[in-house]
Amino acid sequence: MTTAHDYGWGIDPEHALKYAIRHHSGDRTEIVEGTITQVTPSWDHENAAEEIRDQIKPRVRELGCVTGSGNLDLPGSPNWYVPDIAVAPRDLARGGDALVPDQTLLIVEVTSESNAETDRVVKRRRYAEYGAPLYLLVDRVEKTVTVFSEPGGLGYTRTDGPHPFGTPVRLPEPFDLELDTTGL
Q1: Rounded to whole angstroms, how far apart are CA atoms 146 and 61?
Q2: What domains, with CATH codes, occur in the chain?
Q3: Contact 156, 150 (CB under 8 A)
Q4: What element of type H or E holds 51?
Q5: CA distances in angstroms from 96 to 18, 71, 156, listed in the order given
Q6: What is the pLDDT of residue 35?
Q7: Which of 12, 78, 150, 171 has the smallest number of CB atoms closer than 10 Å to its CB?
Q8: What's the chain's average pLDDT?
Q9: CA nearest neighbour of 162 among 183, 176, 143
Q10: In what order do the strands lie in the sheet with 29-32?
């Protein structure tokens, strides 16, 4: 069978897959370890994300950042994530391109029945590997909140939690604020 490579086109499969996802119809589509996944959050899921967003918004503005659920590329891997919330410097968020996790200040993932293990294990490992300084896991299945910090190649070296919903949870610097987890 003749392939594109045989014609000298030199198509990089990672680049081609990520290009296709970026130019998809505009829904929230991710690539997790090479598997294309459509993200379809429920209203409960969106409510949990909104609760966090509302609480961090004043501090995000003070830091000159924005919150969103824009694309995160993990170069050199078959991963393209759309987090529930990412906090990034305003100037980096203006380019229209995907960001890399180490360009964020905080990434928040809210679990659903269908993606809980991915958020707990795969994304936690990958976000640390790619240098996301803070990863907040809102586990709606377990009804807990965990803050991961101090990323490294083998994962996060500092974990605060899991804390049951209703427990105040401290987000470290640069946020330095306490989250009310009652409404999650």
Answers
A1: 23
A2: 11-179 (3.90.1570.10)
A3: yes
A4: helix 43-62
A5: 15, 9, 29
A6: 74
A7: 12
A8: 87
A9: 143
A10: 35-38, 29-32, 79-81, 72-74
